[in-house]
Amino acid sequence: PIMRMSAQEALTEGKKLLEQEKYSKARKYLTHAFEVEPNSRSGREALLLVADTYFLQGGRLNYIEAESKYRDFLNRFPTTDQAAYAQFQYANSLAKRIGRPDRDLSSTLKAYEAYEELMRLYPTSEYAEQAQEQMAIVEENLAEHEFIVGRFYFRYGNFLGAMERFE
Length: 167
Fold this sequence. Notes:
Layout lengths: L6 H13 L3 H14 L4 H17 L2 H17 L6 H14 L9 H16 L6 H28 L3 H8 L1
Helix pairs in contact: 1-2, 1-3, 2-3, 3-4, 4-5, 5-6, 6-7, 7-8
């Protein structure tokens, strides 16, 4: 039945399911709406809502999917009025995957860069202030990592390395 729907019908049904927090079901309708009319206004909205379903559903794999969909949206529609939101959510998807400070920092560094990019590209957007707050949290995680490594160096007698990390 989904295949017989127009993009607008599928978008409307997907939004209803999204409001009911039925993310997987909503995603099917929204994906169809995007595939039927990928370059229309409803297609753009559907792609962004697909990314939102992954983000709202939560979980490591869903955050990875959300990150991919937000990046896809930004690559396809960089000048749309929703680009600042997509960039903010892209950064949030990365930030949700940040682990403990003593683990891999790749998501942490990517999240920081994504927030910086938001500030650079959309400094007057409504998301700029929130992005600055999130950047501060990410910076704290990076600083804690440096402290942990510095403490390790200090404990094992590498005082020069420790001092560089502490600075």
